[in-house]
């Protein structure tokens, strides 16, 4: 398994996403993923499955410090009065004293960036999180985040071959911040794509595996594909035995011209 080195963190480049999984599903999939070799697990307060994820990790028979665990504070809990209690509740549900990474899930126009980043840094100082970061923050908001002096290690955003994230990726590279790709297969939209399919046929790989390989081959990029099917876990992990050529990468890079965004809720920020 490839690891991403950011600051003093070493993070498995491929993790398990748990978006849209029920508590029971998350418990089952997380347990199966850890058994399969996954050591990077991602959840969030709004997913309402932290308890399931926490149970699976606790019962896995793996030392807690061998699992890189991420959760995210939802936008409704960014107010100062709600922030820390929400993190403490997450830790109780996750059955752990700390998470490896605590993220701001979405910005909230009613809460100044400096206010919620102050709370995030305080959570880190309290030992609730080893590392901190943000999610769904375009470059304009990242400027505000970095102005607070926060030492963030990642921005978790939608990233796959069908969306153009060049501006954001370039900004993150310039600032030594990793990009964590959610919806890395565009929620299934990569399936049937002729370019990805053709490249995959050369290596005996699927469009999904080619997409994930394209992501983790990039400097400073991690991917957290979500699946509800246990048999897909091994497939998603089976991307470290081949390498895309420069020509393959160039072909895949052309797909971003369609700029298909699959996650865009009404409260989303102004994207780059």
From TrEMBL:
Gene Ontology biological process: methylglyoxal catabolic process
Domain spans labelled NADP-dependent oxidoreductase: 14-256
Annotated catalytic residues: 47 (proton donor)
GO molecular function, one term: methylglyoxal reductase (NADPH) (acetol producing) activity
PANTHER family linked to this entry: 2,5-DIKETO-D-GLUCONIC ACID REDUCTASE, NADP-DEPENDENT OXIDOREDUCTASE DOMAIN-CONTAINING PROTEIN
Gene3D superfamilies from the UniProt entry: NADP-dependent oxidoreductase domain (3.20.20.100)
Record's keyword terms, sorted: NADP, Oxidoreductase
Descriptive protein name: Aldo/keto reductase
């Amino acid at each position: 398994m490839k690891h991403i080195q950011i600051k003093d963190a070493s993070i498995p480049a491929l993790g398990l996403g748990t978006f849209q999984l029920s508590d029971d599903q998350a418990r089952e999939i997380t347990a199966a993923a850890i058994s399969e070799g996954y050591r990077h697990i991602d959840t969030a307060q709004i997913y309402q499955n932290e308890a399931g994820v926490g149970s699976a990790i606790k019962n896995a028979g793996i030392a807690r410090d061998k699992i890189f665990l991420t959760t995210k504070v939802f936008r409704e809990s960014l107010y100062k009065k709600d922030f820390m209690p929400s993190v403490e509740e997450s830790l109780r549900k996750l059955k752990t004293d700390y998470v490896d990474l605590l993220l701001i899930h979405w910005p909230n126009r009613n809460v100044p960036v400096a206010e919620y980043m102050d709370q995030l840094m305080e959570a880190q100082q309290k030992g609730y999180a080893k590392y901190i970061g943000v999610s769904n923050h375009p470059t304009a908001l990242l400027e505000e985040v970095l102005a607070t002096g926060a030492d963030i290690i990642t921005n978790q955003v939608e990233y796959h071959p069908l969306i153009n994230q060049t501006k954001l990726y370039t900004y993150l590279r310039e600032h030594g911040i990793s990009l964590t790709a959610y919806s890395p297969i565009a929620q299934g939209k990569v399936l049937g794509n002729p370019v990805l399919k053709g490249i995959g046929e050369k290596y005996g790989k699927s469009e999904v595996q080619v997409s994930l390989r394209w992501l983790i081959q990039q400097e400073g990029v991690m991917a957290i594909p979500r699946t509800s099917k246990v048999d897909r876990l091994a497939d998603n992990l089976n991307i470290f035995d081949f390498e895309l050529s420069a020509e393959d990468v160039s072909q895949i890079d052309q797909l971003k011209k369609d700029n298909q965004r699959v996650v865009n809720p009404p409260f989303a920020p102004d994207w780059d």
